[in-house]
Amino acid sequence: MKNTNTKKLAIAAMLVAIGVIGGAWSIPVGASKCAPVQHMINILAATVLGPAYGVIMAFVISVFRNIMGTGTLLAFPGSMCGALLAGLLFKAFSRISIPGIDKALGKGTAGAIIGELFGTAVIGGMCAYPVAMLLMNNSEAALFTYVLPFLVSTLGGTIIGTVLYIALRKTGVLNKMGL
Questions:
Q1: Which residue in 44, 51, 57, 126 is a FRET match for 12, CA 20 to 30 A apart?
Q2: CA pair distance 85, 91, nearest whole angstrom
Q3: Cα–Cα distance, 95 to 151 (Å, whole number)
Q4: Nearest in space to 98 (alpha carbons), one of 108, 89, 90, 88
Q5: What H or E segment, with its residue span, contains residue 100?
Q6: How far apart are alpha carbons 167 and 5 in whole angstroms?
Q7: What is the DSSP string of 106-132?
Q8: Contact 101, 124 (CB under 8 A)
Q9: pLDDT tens digit sequence for 23-35
Q10: Is 137's pLDDT higher than 90?
Q11: pLDDT digits over 44-54, tens only?
Q12: Per-residue pLDDT tens over the stretch 79-125
């Protein structure tokens, strides 16, 4: 697999499969099902594949989780907003130098972490409100109803994803894959 796009597609497919299977494991928090595996994948996608792949993967995983009954429509705004912002901030933070953090996490990783946490919890949590009201007929939902449950979900997955990314980077696996 010399073609970088082919490598990225293969990695994306594997991560989608992990996300669909891992989506069966969720933690109910209020009206949402918190799926930390999705957020782990968002961190990996942001740091290895980029924001476009991350958003597309989050969408595909959400579709499959909904078809299988392991997710709700709320999976779409939370996972996709987190994936997009994680990827964009990873790229932005990769251009600047933060000596202590870069050495510990890797260049740009702090941006992916901030993007995933804020994108999923705050932006995704607030975007979940119209989804709940209009598509799920949840008249009890309010603008900030999903921020805390989404934060709980993304916090665990972000930690797992960051540790996994650091391990893959430090062991040279990403270099061997040509990424």
A1: 126
A2: 10
A3: 27
A4: 108
A5: helix 99-105
A6: 23
A7: -TTHHHHHHHHHHIIIIIIHHHHHHII
A8: no
A9: 888 777 766 667 7
A10: no
A11: 999 999 999 99
A12: 999 999 999 999 999 888 777 777 778 888 999 999 999 999 999 99
Q: Tokens 């992990």 belong to which residue? A: 18
Q: pLDDT tens, 159-170?
A: 999 999 999 988
Residue range 4-23+33-171 forms a domain whose CATH class is mainly alpha
Q: Which amino acid is at 124?
A: G
Q: Which amino acid is at 145?
A: T
Nearest 5°: CA angle at 20, between 19 and 24? Answer: 100
Angle at 99 between CA 97 and CA 104, to 5 degrees: 115
Sorted by sequence, the CB contacts under 8 Å of residue 127 that are 6+ apart come out as: 77, 78, 81
